[in-house]
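Input record (one chain):
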Amino acid sequence: MAARRRSPPPSAPRRIAIGSQHPAKVAAATAVLRQAFPHAEIIALTVDSGVRPAPTSAEETIQGALGRARRALEEAGADLGIGIEDGIEETPHGTFLGGWAAVVDRSGRVGLGGGMRIALPPEVAELARRGRDLGEVVRERSALEEVEIVGTIGWLTRRLVTREEAHRHAVAAALAPFLPGAVE
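The corresponding structure, as predicted from the sequence alone:
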């Protein structure tokens, strides 16, 4: 007897757009979305974040994630849009690298989730403040392969946590309000 494929629940999103084609962001979002909405079509497209390439505050990073999510939603005609943005944040305890994820739907609902934060070494922080791409810095200072997936977080933690893994947590947190049975 052939296995029957179940239909998605009526309220489940059928089409979800990821506002990036960056390998770590796509892999992270897809891993979470496949668990939450296994029947959804997931597409990734390049969209502008609406912020500078290296945001320098949590607020600017959140705005970048929201910009990506909203543009992906509209450009793909999707039910949900996902945006992920990395940035640095100055604190009294040092300069931290971290990411934010945003999920938006057609009704205007928004979910936000923050990923892990990691302190940047002072010399690396200074380069980031001057606008240097952290991927370039990692390539120059390490023999690390797969920099796009492993990222600065993977370099600093010696792969204990990768960029993809950090983004997975942020996406899951941002998706929480959209999950079946979500607490309102």
